[in-house]
Every structure is written in C-alpha cells, then in structure tokens.
Amino acid sequence: MFDVVFSAASVEERLQSGVANTLSATGSIGRARSTDWGPFFSKIRRHSKRLKWTSEADEELDRKKEEMELCETDLQLLDWAMREVFGESQRYEAAARRAAEDPSRGEDPVELQPAAYPHLLALLMRTFRDKYADPHLALSMFDHARHLSIASFVFGCTTPAYNELIETRWRCFRDLRGVCDALEEMRVNGIGMDNRTRSLAEMIRREVGSRNLWQEESEMGSGEVWDMVSRIEKLTAPPAPEEGRCATTVKQKRDRGRSGLQTRKGGSTGRKTTAPEMAGSLVVGTIPRH
C-alpha cells in the first residue's frame, strides 16, 4: 500500500512541478482540477474506510477542538490549522514514507494520516464559515486538503468535509453548479452519502423550487437549473433494491406456501386446519403442529 501511494505521489509531484499550492480565496470557489487515479484511487479509498476509531483518537480530537476554541481570531485559527492539522498530515505521511523505506520495520501497520484529520477538516470549514463569516476561507480549507497530497485528499476529504463544501457553496454563493459538481465527485470517488448529504440536497431542491432565489440572482436559464436539480436528485437517491433478488425471494415464499398446502392436503390426521393456522403456514411455509 505504501509503495503504491508514494509512487503515485511522485507522479503527481512531477505533473505539478513548478506550481505552488497556496490558499487562494478566489480559486477555491471554482471547480478544482480532478485527477483520475482509476483503480489506485479506489484501492486507497477502501483502505481509508478500514481505519479504526480508538479512544486515543477520540481524546486527540477533543484536545484539538479545545485548542481551536482558544483561537481568538480567524488569523490565529488559520495559523493553528496550518501547523496542527495540515502540518500533522504532512508529518504522518513523511513518517509512513520512512517506514516504507525501512527494510527492518516488519509488518507493523503504519497510519498514513491521523484518524481525526477528516473531522478536523470539516470542523475548520464550518468554523470559518459560521463563526468568522469567511466562506472563502472555508472553501480554501477543502481545496488545500485536496492538493496537499494524495493521502490528504483520500483520508481528509470524506463525507463530513464534502457536506460542509456543499453547504458553503449553496448557502454563501448559491452555487448550484458547484453543489452538483461536489456530488458528482462523491459518486465518482466512492465517497458515501449520509443523511445530512441527502438533507442538504432536499433543502436545495426546495429552495430552488421556490424560484425567488433565482429570479434575479441566477445567471443560468431555467432549463439548465432544472437539469441540475434533476441531476442532484438522482445523485442523492438511495440505491434501489436488487429487483431480481426481490423477485426470487417472493417466488421462494410462494413455493414454500404451496408446499405447505400440499402437505396438509395429504395428511392423515383427519383434523381440519383452522384459518389462523393456514394463514401462519402461508407466511412461513411450514405445517402447523397438532
């Protein structure tokens, strides 16, 4: 796993040579460049989902939340975030790289990223947006995590961070296209949608449906708007049950019910089966005990 991550990281570094990743308030509002890592991205994403949440990670998250609350200005919080959140992300990755290059390290697992990283990223975005009324900086937090490293993107930009991204793009900028793009990214990259994701999508659909938000604020035509709303509904719709499997289950229950009826007809006890007994046997496909 480490070799795959670091090999891909070296390719990405060559592609981005000479390009600095900075916290740009204006650049973070638009749609960021997307890198198609194909099977590699799916593999590392599955690895990130297997991370176990421990009591130590819970204590670390609480400690860092307290440190965040001690920051009195947005500038102090930004400085703290660069040092204690993104800096720690880089330190973890550097330690994992050294461990991968050490032939004597054995098979002991090494964490690529802190377990609290995705939660802190989402909390930073929400704090900058709500407490300090700076949605540009909130978007920049996500953008910085996305481009900091591959591991940072995979382990940090998870469902909670995407939820904050969607809420910020809509509440602060009425960026319907940005919301649609974020949901597309989640689907393509295998990032699960939770109840909050679907609740946000439903809120956006209702507000767009009221039309008053779009009469003067939107530069898009009504046709394009409704196409995006339809796309958002499809992206956030719960997965449909497997029709073939459901049909097979119904057929099996029906066959078991018929089998139970045939067995009772051929019985020799002479006792009549009551209506409740027959109803019960049709459900479970068994012969009532006499």
UniProtKB/TrEMBL annotation:
Domain of life where this protein originates: Eukaryota
Domain Mtf2-like C-terminal, chain residue ranges per copy: 58-234
Low complexity bias: start-end ranges: 263-273
Pfam families attached to this UniProt entry: Mtf2
Family annotation (InterPro entries): Mtf2-like_C, Mtf2/C5D6.12-like
Signal peptide residues on this chain, from the entry's feature table: none
A GO term from the CC aspect: mitochondrion
Residue segments, region Disordered: 238-290
PANTHER family: CHROMOSOME 7, WHOLE GENOME SHOTGUN SEQUENCE (PTHR39468), MTF2-LIKE C-TERMINAL DOMAIN-CONTAINING PROTEIN (PTHR39468:SF1)
Protein name according to UniProt: Uncharacterized protein C5D6.12
Species for this entry: Grifola frondosa
